[in-house]
Write a structure and sequence with these properties.
single chain; 185 residues; alpha/beta; three-stranded parallel β-sheet; 9 strands; 37% helix; disordered C terminus; DUF1796
Length: 185
């Protein structure tokens, strides 16, 4: 049985990191811990090393919640990092440093055997295909399972991914197939 050096949240929301913390499995803060992150944004961050995660031209402030910002390239929403009473320019240097540490640590840690945990969004957030059709997050992950597993294992062959979903439409065979593809027996 594989022993994991790290257990890391790949988001969708904060509760994934909170539960890892509660069970004593989280050893540090990672980039997806306190954000809302669509799977496609996580994939892009892993593929390009978090390039422009906090690029000012890609950050849009919520009109309803001025302390919330969204990176429009990745679709990642920051709910816990910004203060609504200070300008973006004033806050960004410290927040960038914090996330740079998290990203550097994350990219270093995942080169060791890592168990990734992802709560799959049950909301109707969609991935848009090139033909204009759309998929739910679980449909997207199911359709791209082998590529996702290959990406996860590209950092370390012993890396694994656990997906958690409360979507009743997802049947056990889809989870079993993903698990089997990951090399679990």
């Amino acid at each position: 049985m594989t022993q994991f050096a790290h257990c890391i949240s790949l988001g969708y929301f904060c509760s994934t990191a909170m539960e890892l913390e509660r069970y004593g499995l989280r050893d540090c803060s990672s980039p997806f811990d306190w954000c809302i992150s669509p799977w496609t944004g996580v994939e892009q961050c892993l593929a390009n090393g978090f390039d422009k995660l906090l690029e000012p031209s890609l950050l849009y402030q919520s009109k309803n919640e001025p302390s919330h910002y969204k990176n429009i390239r990745y679709g990642i929403e920051f709910f816990h990092d910004f203060n609504s009473h200070r300008s973006l320019q004033e806050q960004l240097p410290d927040i960038r440093r914090k996330y740079q540490r998290r990203c550097d640590r994350f990219l270093s840690n995942i080169c060791e055997p890592t168990l990734f945990i992802r709560y799959v969004a049950s909301e109707p957030r969609m991935s848009i295909r090139s033909d204009g059709s759309s998929l739910t997050e679980m449909q997207y992950i199911t359709c791209h399972s082998q590529e996702i597993i290959n990406m996860i294992k590209s950092f370390n062959i012993n890396n694994r991914l656990i997906l958690i979903s409360d979507t009743p439409a997802i049947t056990p065979p889809q989870h079993t197939r993903l698990s089997r593809s990951a090399g679990s027996r």
